[in-house]
Design brief:
Blueprint lengths: L2 H17 L14 H7 L1 E7 L7 E2 L5 E2 L1 H13 L2 E7 L4 H6 L5 E7 L8 E17 L14 E5 L3 H9 L5 E5 L2 H9 L5 E5 H10 L4 E17 L3 H16 L2 H10 L5 H4 L3
Parallel strand pairs: 1-4, 1-5, 7-8, 7-9
Antiparallel strand pairs: 2-3, 5-10, 6-9, 6-10
Helix pairs in contact: 1-7
Length: 270
């Protein structure tokens, strides 16, 4: 998959995630239990497959990515087979509430609104928005952006974050998507760009060792979701996450798919 294609998929996944849960859904009539899953011999796990590197379809046309590896580890902890069910941003919570999946490992950002409809585990992943530029560029504070040009995807989270942070004499150049902003950085059209750590990982693949994050502007954590009121299942998932954070397994998955250690704001969160 070429770089532009990867960026397009990331952008599409972000838009899908942002549009999710515009409508509140009624809680499920029953809670999921650990024993029920073990008796079934499998755990049905809902996962996005269009949000790389968290969720993709690999060359064998099977779900893969960060979320898939976490899902398989969870199934192993339960002692059952993992049945990964592809979901979309809009239908992932309805799938959980209707019993079509048992849990969601679907890049679901933890928000108060979503917590009205599902129960969230402690964070297992996170997305941060920051400013990225050439490794030899010294940028540690807002004043260092004075006179600089900064590329962002128009009307994105990073557009808002950079606009609020940068001094008035910085030039913010807005592009149609992350892929265009990244190409502007790589070709020297802008000095720096604002983007998520997910896209930053793709830059590292395209141009190893040339760029790094200068400033982190915001963070959003993602949780594993279970049906509302599934207290036992939630406790199991949280114990599982404490285990894989403690033994380094989750960090290995993060290194594999994002090319960097698990962020502290995820690793230390309970």
């Amino acid at each position: 998959m070429n770089f532009t294609r990867r960026m397009a998929l990331i952008g599409a996944g972000t838009l899908i995630g942002a549009s999710a849960l515009a409508t509140a859904f009624a809680p499920a009539a029953f809670a999921q239990t650990v024993e029920g899953i073990k008796s079934a011999g499998e755990v049905k796990i809902g996962m996005l497959v269009d949000f790389p590197p968290f969720g993709i379809m690999n060359t064998s046309n099977e779900p893969d990515g960060y979320d898939a590896d976490v899902a398989k580890l969870l199934a192993k902890e339960l002692g059952v087979e993992a049945k990964i069910v592809p979901v979309t941003g809009p239908n992932r919570i309805p799938y959980l509430q209707s019993g079509q999946v048992d849990v969601l490992v679907a890049s679901l950002g933890i928000t108060e609104e979503r917590a009205k409809n599902v129960d969230f585990s402690q964070p297992y992943a996170g997305i941060s928005i920051g400013i990225v530029g050439p490794k030899d560029a010294t940028v540690t504070k807002a004043e260092d952006l004075s006179g600089k040009s900064i590329g962002v995807a128009r009307a994105s989270t990073q557009d808002t974050a950079v606009t609020n942070f940068a001094p008035s004499d910085a030039t913010i150049r807005r592009f149609d998507d992350d892929a265009s902003a990244v190409q502007a950085l790589l070709s020297g059209q802008v000095d720096l760009i604002g983007l998520s750590n997910v896209v930053a990982a793709e830059i590292e693949k395209a141009a190893p060792g040339r760029y790094d994050q200068k400033i982190q502007l915001s963070q959003q954590v993602q949780g594993i979701a279970v049906k509302k009121g599934s207290t036992e299942m939630l406790e199991f998932v949280n114990k599982f996450l404490e285990k894989v954070k403690g033994d380094g397994e989750l960090n290995k998955i993060h290194e594999k798919w994002l090319g960097s250690p698990l962020p502290d704001f995820v690793a230390d969160a309970k």
